[in-house]
Amino acid sequence: MTPITEVEGRRLALSNLDKVIYPARHFTKGEVVHYYASVAGSLLAHLYNRPVSFLRFPDGPEGQRFFAKNVPPGTPSWIRTAEVPHSDGPARQVLVQDLATLVWSANLVTEFHTPQWQADAHGIADRLVLDLDPGAPATVVECCEVALWLRERLAADGIEAFAKTSGAKGLHLLAPIEPTPSGEVTGYAKGLAVEAEQALPGLVTHRMTKSLRPGRVFVDFSQNAAAKTTATPYTLRARTEPSVSAPVTWEEVADCRDAARLHFLADDIPPRLQAHGDLLAPLFNPNRARPLP
């Protein structure tokens, strides 16, 4: 029998809560739902008013994965959605605006991915993102070196950057900006990636070409494009363990000498939130947003 729970006045059917999703940690679907509920105060702020794309992995990271932008079949009528233009025509996507919607989404077993723009301003970005992806044998340690250079470079343009782990191998840098067309943000971000490659030869590449990747950090600027999304802060990832895309301090970035130092699991996040609050809260402060040069 599928248990029914009530969240903020909404009745939700939560299924297969004892199912093990992350075998390496014997982490169950019920724990997935509990994790998302426990970090809802911070996660919802990053999801709010941004059309969500779901990377679903209902049978665990080793099972089938599928990326869904359209509203999933069976979505309750009370869940808010937004019409989003796509190259093949408009689609409706979920807006995760409240705890009930978050718990419903968590029951699907998902990573949350969001664009750099909000639902009422398609293609007008209010943040810039740089995805630092290490090619083996490089790790997040090398990403931290690149992140520190990029932080200073952005600061030279008056832009304040913040860091989070990708929840996989690398780092994401995020910066609040004044609303700017996504194409302009992408162009600026590409310029930064090229500069980083020139300043840190042998360590950085701005090109995705696989033969250039080993031992280097790929500075992916493309996620600023209107059609692209990035893993949302605090989302679980479909990895062997319940790893999380976790905000980190610049002190942690500067002190990173071991990749394990910047690897965070679901159980690590509530204590970090209690100790630090949401390290990415400045992204929501309009006084921190700066124009692109």
From TrEMBL:
**Domain DNA ligase D polymerase, residue spans:** 28-279
What terms describe the molecular function in GO for this protein?
ligase activity
Per UniProt, which keywords does this protein have? Answer: Ligase
InterPro entries recorded: LigD_pol_dom (IPR014145), MtLigD_Pol-like (IPR033649), NHEJ_LigD (IPR052171)
Q: What's the protein called, per UniProt? A: ATP-dependent DNA ligase
Q: Which organism is it from?
A: Streptomyces physcomitrii
